[in-house]
Write a structure and sequence with these properties.
With 213 residues, the protein is α+β, with helices and mostly antiparallel strands. It has two domains: 36 residues; 163 residues. Strands 1-2-3-4-6-5 form a six-stranded antiparallel sheet, covered by helices on one side. A hairpin with a 3-residue loop joins strand 5 and strand 6.
Protein backbone atom coordinates (compact mmCIF):
# COMPACT_ATOMS: atom_id res chain seq x y z
CA UNK A 1 0.00 0.00 0.00
CA UNK A 2 1.54 3.31 -1.14
CA UNK A 3 2.12 5.96 1.54
CA UNK A 4 2.01 9.75 1.25
CA UNK A 5 2.54 12.59 3.71
CA UNK A 6 -0.50 14.59 4.86
CA UNK A 7 -1.01 17.23 7.53
CA UNK A 8 -3.81 16.71 10.05
CA UNK A 9 -5.07 19.01 12.80
CA UNK A 10 -6.04 16.93 15.85
CA UNK A 11 -6.99 17.78 19.42
CA UNK A 12 -4.17 17.48 21.99
CA UNK A 13 -6.13 14.98 24.07
CA UNK A 14 -6.59 12.73 21.04
CA UNK A 15 -2.88 12.86 20.22
CA UNK A 16 -2.01 11.95 23.83
CA UNK A 17 -4.37 8.98 23.70
CA UNK A 18 -2.98 7.89 20.33
CA UNK A 19 0.60 8.15 21.61
CA UNK A 20 -0.22 6.07 24.71
CA UNK A 21 -1.80 3.34 22.59
CA UNK A 22 1.01 3.46 20.02
CA UNK A 23 3.58 3.02 22.81
CA UNK A 24 1.61 0.10 24.23
CA UNK A 25 1.48 -1.60 20.82
CA UNK A 26 5.09 -0.80 19.95
CA UNK A 27 4.23 1.17 16.82
CA UNK A 28 4.36 4.78 15.62
CA UNK A 29 1.70 7.47 15.91
CA UNK A 30 1.27 7.62 12.12
CA UNK A 31 0.98 3.87 11.77
CA UNK A 32 -1.62 3.60 14.51
CA UNK A 33 -3.74 6.41 13.02
CA UNK A 34 -3.41 4.70 9.63
CA UNK A 35 -4.68 1.41 11.11
CA UNK A 36 -7.57 3.07 12.94
CA UNK A 37 -8.74 4.87 9.79
CA UNK A 38 -8.32 1.71 7.69
CA UNK A 39 -10.45 -0.30 10.12
CA UNK A 40 -13.13 2.40 10.22
CA UNK A 41 -13.21 2.67 6.42
CA UNK A 42 -12.87 -1.08 5.74
CA UNK A 43 -9.51 -0.78 4.01
CA UNK A 44 -6.92 -3.60 4.12
CA UNK A 45 -3.51 -2.44 5.31
CA UNK A 46 -0.24 -4.42 5.12
CA UNK A 47 -0.41 -4.74 8.92
CA UNK A 48 -3.86 -6.35 8.69
CA UNK A 49 -2.66 -8.72 5.96
CA UNK A 50 0.40 -9.75 7.99
CA UNK A 51 -1.67 -10.16 11.17
CA UNK A 52 -4.12 -12.43 9.35
CA UNK A 53 -1.26 -14.55 7.99
CA UNK A 54 0.37 -14.88 11.40
CA UNK A 55 -2.93 -15.68 13.13
CA UNK A 56 -3.53 -18.51 10.65
CA UNK A 57 0.10 -19.63 10.95
CA UNK A 58 -0.23 -19.82 14.74
CA UNK A 59 -3.21 -22.16 14.37
CA UNK A 60 -1.26 -24.29 11.90
CA UNK A 61 1.94 -24.82 13.94
CA UNK A 62 0.80 -24.14 17.51
CA UNK A 63 1.32 -27.73 18.67
CA UNK A 64 4.82 -28.12 17.23
CA UNK A 65 6.41 -24.81 18.22
CA UNK A 66 6.54 -22.55 21.24
CA UNK A 67 5.11 -19.30 19.87
CA UNK A 68 6.64 -16.10 21.26
CA UNK A 69 4.70 -12.90 21.96
CA UNK A 70 4.38 -10.83 18.81
CA UNK A 71 5.79 -7.32 19.21
CA UNK A 72 5.66 -6.31 15.56
CA UNK A 73 3.03 -6.74 12.86
CA UNK A 74 5.67 -7.99 10.42
CA UNK A 75 7.51 -10.41 12.71
CA UNK A 76 6.70 -13.76 14.32
CA UNK A 77 9.15 -15.81 16.38
CA UNK A 78 8.90 -19.35 17.75
CA UNK A 79 11.15 -21.95 19.34
CA UNK A 80 11.76 -25.68 19.55
CA UNK A 81 14.28 -27.79 21.47
CA UNK A 82 16.65 -30.29 19.84
CA UNK A 83 17.28 -33.83 21.02
CA UNK A 84 20.98 -33.15 21.62
CA UNK A 85 22.68 -33.39 25.03
CA UNK A 86 21.45 -30.28 26.87
CA UNK A 87 18.45 -29.80 24.51
CA UNK A 88 19.59 -26.56 22.83
CA UNK A 89 16.92 -24.17 21.61
CA UNK A 90 16.36 -23.49 17.93
CA UNK A 91 14.80 -20.11 17.16
CA UNK A 92 12.60 -19.60 14.08
CA UNK A 93 11.90 -16.03 12.95
CA UNK A 94 9.48 -15.23 10.12
CA UNK A 95 9.50 -11.64 8.87
CA UNK A 96 7.02 -10.59 6.18
CA UNK A 97 7.53 -7.76 3.69
CA UNK A 98 5.03 -4.89 3.69
CA UNK A 99 5.02 -4.83 -0.12
CA UNK A 100 5.85 -8.33 -1.42
CA UNK A 101 7.52 -8.60 -4.81
CA UNK A 102 9.58 -11.67 -5.76
CA UNK A 103 9.65 -12.67 -2.10
CA UNK A 104 6.99 -12.37 0.60
CA UNK A 105 9.51 -12.31 3.43
CA UNK A 106 12.38 -14.10 5.15
CA UNK A 107 12.78 -17.07 7.48
CA UNK A 108 15.74 -17.01 9.87
CA UNK A 109 16.64 -20.09 11.91
CA UNK A 110 19.35 -19.81 14.54
CA UNK A 111 20.91 -21.65 17.46
CA UNK A 112 22.73 -19.93 20.32
CA UNK A 113 25.73 -22.06 21.15
CA UNK A 114 29.52 -22.15 21.43
CA UNK A 115 29.59 -25.94 21.09
CA UNK A 116 31.69 -26.68 18.00
CA UNK A 117 30.11 -30.08 17.45
CA UNK A 118 26.63 -28.59 17.51
CA UNK A 119 27.63 -25.83 15.10
CA UNK A 120 29.16 -28.37 12.72
CA UNK A 121 26.01 -30.50 12.79
CA UNK A 122 23.77 -27.44 12.32
CA UNK A 123 25.75 -26.28 9.29
CA UNK A 124 26.02 -29.76 7.74
CA UNK A 125 22.28 -30.25 7.95
CA UNK A 126 21.44 -26.93 6.32
CA UNK A 127 24.05 -27.39 3.59
CA UNK A 128 22.28 -30.64 2.75
CA UNK A 129 18.82 -29.04 3.08
CA UNK A 130 19.75 -26.05 0.89
CA UNK A 131 21.21 -28.27 -1.83
CA UNK A 132 18.09 -30.47 -1.80
CA UNK A 133 15.83 -27.42 -2.07
CA UNK A 134 17.83 -25.92 -4.93
CA UNK A 135 17.62 -29.16 -6.89
CA UNK A 136 13.88 -29.66 -6.32
CA UNK A 137 12.91 -26.04 -6.97
CA UNK A 138 15.24 -25.82 -9.97
CA UNK A 139 13.26 -28.60 -11.64
CA UNK A 140 10.18 -26.39 -11.20
CA UNK A 141 12.00 -23.43 -12.81
CA UNK A 142 12.56 -21.56 -9.53
CA UNK A 143 16.26 -20.78 -9.75
CA UNK A 144 16.63 -17.81 -7.37
CA UNK A 145 19.33 -17.98 -4.71
CA UNK A 146 17.23 -18.44 -1.57
CA UNK A 147 19.55 -19.46 1.28
CA UNK A 148 22.46 -18.15 3.32
CA UNK A 149 24.17 -20.42 5.87
CA UNK A 150 26.58 -19.89 8.75
CA UNK A 151 27.50 -22.29 11.59
CA UNK A 152 24.65 -20.88 13.70
CA UNK A 153 22.12 -19.40 11.23
CA UNK A 154 20.07 -20.43 8.21
CA UNK A 155 18.38 -17.60 6.31
CA UNK A 156 15.82 -18.48 3.66
CA UNK A 157 13.92 -16.04 1.43
CA UNK A 158 10.26 -17.00 1.05
CA UNK A 159 9.03 -17.06 -2.54
CA UNK A 160 5.98 -15.09 -3.60
CA UNK A 161 3.94 -17.53 -5.68
CA UNK A 162 0.70 -15.54 -5.66
CA UNK A 163 -1.03 -17.31 -2.78
CA UNK A 164 -3.81 -15.62 -0.83
CA UNK A 165 -3.30 -14.91 2.88
CA UNK A 166 -4.80 -18.18 4.12
CA UNK A 167 -2.74 -20.30 1.74
CA UNK A 168 0.37 -18.23 2.43
CA UNK A 169 0.02 -19.14 6.11
CA UNK A 170 -0.54 -22.81 5.21
CA UNK A 171 2.50 -22.77 2.92
CA UNK A 172 4.78 -21.26 5.56
CA UNK A 173 3.38 -23.64 8.17
CA UNK A 174 3.92 -26.68 5.95
CA UNK A 175 7.47 -25.58 5.22
CA UNK A 176 8.24 -25.08 8.92
CA UNK A 177 6.68 -28.43 9.86
CA UNK A 178 8.62 -30.28 7.14
CA UNK A 179 11.90 -28.58 7.99
CA UNK A 180 11.51 -29.00 11.75
CA UNK A 181 10.66 -32.69 11.37
CA UNK A 182 13.75 -33.21 9.20
CA UNK A 183 15.95 -31.25 11.63
CA UNK A 184 14.71 -33.22 14.64
CA UNK A 185 15.23 -36.53 12.81
CA UNK A 186 18.78 -35.55 11.86
CA UNK A 187 19.79 -34.50 15.36
CA UNK A 188 18.32 -37.66 16.85
CA UNK A 189 20.78 -39.71 14.75
CA UNK A 190 23.09 -37.59 12.54
CA UNK A 191 25.10 -40.61 11.39
CA UNK A 192 22.11 -41.88 9.39
CA UNK A 193 21.57 -38.82 7.18
CA UNK A 194 22.34 -40.74 3.98
CA UNK A 195 20.02 -43.52 5.01
CA UNK A 196 16.96 -41.36 5.54
CA UNK A 197 17.73 -38.62 2.98
CA UNK A 198 15.36 -40.29 0.44
CA UNK A 199 12.59 -40.06 3.05
CA UNK A 200 13.37 -36.38 3.69
CA UNK A 201 13.32 -35.63 -0.02
CA UNK A 202 10.01 -37.45 -0.37
CA UNK A 203 8.56 -35.34 2.46
CA UNK A 204 9.81 -32.14 0.84
CA UNK A 205 8.52 -33.06 -2.63
CA UNK A 206 5.16 -33.95 -1.09
CA UNK A 207 5.00 -30.46 0.37
CA UNK A 208 5.87 -28.93 -3.02
CA UNK A 209 2.86 -30.66 -4.57
CA UNK A 210 0.68 -28.45 -2.37
CA UNK A 211 2.73 -25.30 -1.76
CA UNK A 212 5.80 -23.57 -3.14
CA UNK A 213 7.11 -20.95 -0.75
Amino acid sequence: MKRSIYSLVLADDIIKAVDREAARLGTSRSNLINQILAAELSCITPEMRMRDIFDSLTEHIGRSFQIQQRRSASLMTMKTALEFKYRPTISYRVELDRSPDIFIGTLRISVRTMNEKLMEMFMNFFLYWSAMESECLGKLKYEEQLSEITPVTFVRKLLNTGLDDQNTACAIGSYLDTLNRALQTYFADPSCLRGYSPWLEEQYKSMLEKYII
